[in-house]
């Protein structure tokens, strides 16, 4: 233990005696660890944000996406309503959705947002409530009333926080009356749920010039009946399209599984790319350690002459390399933590500081010191003491 403590003290002394060179040596490790922490934090934050939003919808939500563009005809909302009436014990509500990007204008203020065209059942299916005013009514859909509900973020940005109920806004140049404000759902880092405008689906079809509804959300009464209802829907849609690739029926659990699989793969891929800079940093460590061995040849010769064994020299240089990379790892973790905090504070992105990944990154930085310091340490330990003492 005393030998390790002495080697550690000598390593710190060596680092302090060449501060700039030591900093440049550990720079590659610092950048590598920083990148790993920041990338993993961003990936985990994004995953958590999307997962939370899907979980809020519950396990009793089924989504239908129509993809068949060459079909002779498409399923209609009325047909799905008839289907729901046939299975009323299982199906609570169906809501069609038409979405598009639009520009809102109120006075001289403009705001780009997402438009959702739907029916009154959307409130039940998506568990969307209003904080003031009212939601879309069946009469709005039937008579194509140009009414709109806005999210709280739009209230802040477009109306400067004033009550928008009854005010006229323009959506892509057409005048709508605001009849409701959606209940705030997201936190400060997750604004998409609060940054949308909802209008009757029949109006949205005209506004977006898209008569075909390709997305339907279905809320079932019992999440345990999800597979059975999906089978009913698949049979029903097959009779219309006669092509299983023309539509897709999936539930929230399947969407979560797919999302987790994709994000895990993406996280590993990004972490792998960031790890390349760690390898480059390790090569830099080995290069500088070789220079250090050459510069300290006489010191090694003196130590061997007074009794130091080969393993003493080997351990000394391995510890020096590990201390350099370990310090680089600590600095990289601190920078990664600060980066994640800044991004979260400024609402740039949702990011999470992962302690397990920080521990793993620090362990990897120590391992890099051992792996890439092994060759210089071995070279130092093999030096002949007589030749080392003669070295000028």
Largest sheet: 6 strands, mixed, barrel
Number of helices: 13
* Average pLDDT: 83
Note the beta-strand portion.
15-25%
Percent of residues in helical segments? Answer: 55-70%
Shape: elongated
Rg from alpha-carbon coordinates = 32 Å
How are strands sequenced across the largest beta sheet? 2-3-8-5-7-6
Tally of domains? 2
How many E-type strands?
10
The SSE string, one letter per element, is HHEHEEHEHEHEEEHEHEHHHHH
Distance between the termini: 33 Å
Structural class: alpha+beta
Sequence stretches where pLDDT stays below 50 over 5 or more residues: none
Main location: membrane
Domain ABC3 transporter permease C-terminal: 273-385
GO cellular component, one term: plasma membrane
Subcellular location: Cell membrane
Q: Could you characterize the architecture of this molecule?
A:
Helices cover 58% and strands 18% of the residues. With 392 residues, it is α+β, with helices and mostly antiparallel strands. A 6-stranded mixed beta barrel has the order 2-3-8-5-7-6. α2 (19-57) runs antiparallel to α9 (252-295) and α9 (252-295) packs parallel to α12 (355-381). It is a multi-pass membrane protein. It is found in: Cell membrane. Belongs to the ABC-4 integral membrane protein family.
Outline of this structure?
The protein is an alpha+beta fold and 392 residues long. Helix content is 58%, strand content 18%.
Summarize the helices and strands and which ones pair or pack.
Elements: H1 2-17, H2 19-57, E1 61-66, H3 77-86, E2 91-106, E3 109-118, H4 122-125, E4 130-133, H5 138-142, E5 147-150, H6 152-158, E6 168-171, E7 174-182, E8 196-200, H7 201-208, E9 215-220, H8 226-241, E10 247-251, H9 252-295, H10 297-305, H11 310-345, H12 355-381, H13 385-390
Parallel strand pairs: 3-8, 5-7
Antiparallel strand pairs: 1-9, 1-10, 2-3, 2-6, 2-9, 4-7, 5-8, 6-7
Helix pairs in contact: 1-11, 2-9, 2-11, 2-12, 9-11, 9-12, 11-12
